[in-house]
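RECORD TYPE: inverse folding
INPUT: structure tokens
STRUCTURE:
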């Protein structure tokens, strides 16, 4: 069966078309700037090169139509008819506590996603627009939603609740949900396959470190804690997100600056983190280059960034009464060896001993720790799309999925 995976953001659509017989990627690309001037689609060709096509894309419907057009194109695509697509799988960031596993899309599911827009206003609106576009353009093709927070639904209540009036949770659903769930799920399972161990016997800390970043404690295959919270703002210091901050610092600065809640949210999500401290860029590569050139604020930003990762690793090792495997993944985790090295330094007490030569690598499945390290430190490139495709295949064919 051929399955199309869509990840629809507020103004973007990423896509991959799979032939699930062998899980082969047939086509992939992304639409950018939907609803804005100079919208385009960028398609990755079979030889690895990319082709960009400008287009007028006022809504997600036109964006999805353009994806379909490219899939059918003799040069850019991989199919002769849309009838070849057996199902469409969607990533949905926020499933709240309504959705604890992937599900086939129905009108009730769409209403549920819509009801959660307040918890993820930018993301869920985009996801819903993508669902409705496919509804209209391919009404007879089954769709599946795979929720970003579903893997974290195994957290116990004492881990996901905040120390606030309980009514805030019971009435407004304010709690820790966690995100990057498809990535944490994939790498925690894949690392056990890679090492030849049973996930049900392992205590694993998964570090999804990209422009957005989160850490999860996966004990015997189930998440018991994760660093992001009600929204993706909480937890680690990120490219442009503050991560954990004293709420009183937020209200203090609102009083001092006169910022509205929406303006403060903009600062904490888009003008903070590494960008806010160093004042250079949210891209870690730019900050590492600046650090190498002697920029003191870039150096400070990197120290803060790595220190927070280290703190979460230590906290989750404590929560699980030890750790067997630490996994690195996502854009920074897979490519910035300095972040991995510094975050795992001085952890001999925990049984972590890195190997510098092994750590000198990018984007490959590889053990990074020394042979005599009690804790295995491993890089596993993430593949969130294949998780979505597998769940989609399982649900539309009536098979069980993990």
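DESIGNED SEQUENCE:
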């Amino acid at each position: 069966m051929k399955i199309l995976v869509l990840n629809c953001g507020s103004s973007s659509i990423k896509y991959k078309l799979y032939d699930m017989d062998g899980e082969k990627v047939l086509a992939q690309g992304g639409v950018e700037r939907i609803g804005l001037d100079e919208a385009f689609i960028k398609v990755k060709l079979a030889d690895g090169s990319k082709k960009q096509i400008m287009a007028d894309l006022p809504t997600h419907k036109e964006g999805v139509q353009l994806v379909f057009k490219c899939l059918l194109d003799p040069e850019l695509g991989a199919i002769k008819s849309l009838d070849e697509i057996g199902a469409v799988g969607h990533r949905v960031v926020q499933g709240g506590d309504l959705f604890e596993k992937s599900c086939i899309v129905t009108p009730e599911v769409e209403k549920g996603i819509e009801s959660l827009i307040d918890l993820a206003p930018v993301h869920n609106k985009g996801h819903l627009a993508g669902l409705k576009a496919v509804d209209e353009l391919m009404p007879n093709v089954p769709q599946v939603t795979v929720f970003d927070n579903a893997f974290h639904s195994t957290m116990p209540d004492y881990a996901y609740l905040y120390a606030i009036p309980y009514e805030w949770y019971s009435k407004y659903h304010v709690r820790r949900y966690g995100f990057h769930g498809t990535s944490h799920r994939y790498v925690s399972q894949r690392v056990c396959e890679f090492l030849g161990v049973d996930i049900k016997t392992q205590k694993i800390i998964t570090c999804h470190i990209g422009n957005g970043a989160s850490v999860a404690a996966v004990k015997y295959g189930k998440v018991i804690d994760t660093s992001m919270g009600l929204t993706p703002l909480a937890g680690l210091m990120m490219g442009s997100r503050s991560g954990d901050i004293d709420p009183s610092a937020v209200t203090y600065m609102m009083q001092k600056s006169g910022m509205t809640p929406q303006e403060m949210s903009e600062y904490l999500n888009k003008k903070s983190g590494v960008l806010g401290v160093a004042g250079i860029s949210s891209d870690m590569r730019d900050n590492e280059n600046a650090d190498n050139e002697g920029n003191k604020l870039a150096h400070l930003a990197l120290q803060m960034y790595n220190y927070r990762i280290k703190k979460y690793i230590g906290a989750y090792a404590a929560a699980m009464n030890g750790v067997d495997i630490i996994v690195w993944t996502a854009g920074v985790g897979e490519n910035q060896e300095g972040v991995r090295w510094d975050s795992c330094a001085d952890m001999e007490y925990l049984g972590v001993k890195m190997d510098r030569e092994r750590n000198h690598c990018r984007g490959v499945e590889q053990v990074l720790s020394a042979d005599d390290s009690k804790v295995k430190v491993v890089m596993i490139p993430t593949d969130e799309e294949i998780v979505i495709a597998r769940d989609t295949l399982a649900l539309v064919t009536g098979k069980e999925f993990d």
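NOTES: The first strand starts at residue 2 and ends at 8.
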